[in-house]
Amino acid sequence: MPKIKTHRGAAKRFKKTGTGKIKRSKAYRSHLLTCKNAKKIKNLRRGALVEKANLDSVRKMLPY
User: Fold this and answer.
1) Helix, strand, or coil here: 1?
2) pTM above 0.70?
3) Are 18 and 45 in contact (CB under 8 A)?
4) What CATH number has the domain bearing residue 41?
5) For residue 53, what are the domain limits?
6) Tens-place pLDDT, residues 9-44
7) How far is residue 34's CA from residue 60's CA, in Å, rounded to a whole number?
8) In the predicted structure, residue 50 carries a pLDDT above the cut 90
9) Strand order in the sheet with 22-24
10) Most buried by CB count within 10 Å: which residue of 19, 47, 54, 59?
């Protein structure tokens, strides 16, 4: 049986935590920041966890 390859695009976007959950970064942080207030930009800095609906597909992309 050959090994499963890691999806390289997903590996750059997601990280596994120690307990096995998957972290992601938030969207809307790259450009057009002048129209967003400071509170919104500060909240976008924090990471978030992948939702249950997408968890299975992300786990398949990150087997190891």
Assistant:
1) coil
2) yes
3) no
4) 4.10.410.60
5) 8-61
6) 999 999 999 999 999 999 999 999 999 999 999 999
7) 37
8) yes
9) 14-16, 22-24, 48-49
10) 59
